[in-house]
Amino acid sequence: MHIPDHLVYAQTHEWVKLEDDGTLTIGITDFGQEQLGPLVYVDMPAVGKVLARGAESGIVESNKTASDLHAPVDGEVVAVNELLVETPDAINGAPYEQWIFKLKPAAPFSAEGFLDAAGYLKLIS
């Protein structure tokens, strides 16, 4: 299973990438999408919505189950991946390339409280 080293991971199976402009790009991990199976629906937060760390920020659904997405930090949603409305299963083929939403964090991002690739691998093993 592929777990990129340049990302950090939440225990709820979201990956987080800190962008050069300070925003965060969020998606679900390879393990997370594998557990769900082929995705049929992605419910994303609205642009402009303010989220609290750990709050439900959306849902990913497959034919067999659904899973909540969680906000990794406090912040405002600045973009959503509209392509996933029509092709949610694109996440299954490229989970680290298919981001779900982007956040402008309320405070400078710290990776404290997140897992690195080795820590995430230990979590899912």
Automatic annotation (TrEMBL):
Starting at the broadest rank, the lineage of the source organism is: Bacteria, Pseudomonadati, Pseudomonadota, Betaproteobacteria, Burkholderiales
Any Pfam family: GCV_H
Q: What does this protein do?
A: The glycine cleavage system catalyzes the degradation of glycine. The H protein shuttles the methylamine group of glycine from the P protein to the T protein.
Q: Which Gene3D superfamilies match?
A: 2.40.50.100
| Organism superkingdom | Bacteria
InterPro entries, per this entry? Biotin_lipoyl, GCV_H, GCV_H/Fam206, GCV_H_sub, Single_hybrid_motif
Q: Which residues carry this modification: N6-lipoyllysine?
A: K64
Domain named Lipoyl-binding is located at 23-104
Q: Which GO terms describe its cellular component?
A: cytosol; glycine cleavage complex
Q: By its UniProt entry, which CDD domains does this protein fall under?
A: GCS_H
Q: Which cofactor does it need?
A: (R)-lipoate
Q: Which organism is it from?
A: Herbaspirillum seropedicae (strain SmR1)
Keywords (alphabetical) are: Lipoyl
Please indicate if the UniProt record lists DNA-binding as a keyword. Answer: no
Q: Tell me if Cytoplasm is a UniProt keyword of this record.
A: no
The UniProt entry's GO biological process terms, in alphabetical order, are: glycine decarboxylation via glycine cleavage system; protein lipoylation
What is written in the cofactor note of this entry? Binds 1 lipoyl cofactor covalently.
Protein name per its UniProtKB record: Glycine cleavage system H protein
- Report the sequence similarity comment from the record: Belongs to the GcvH family.
- State whether it acts alone or in a complex, and with which partners, per the record: The glycine cleavage system is composed of four proteins: P, T, L and H.
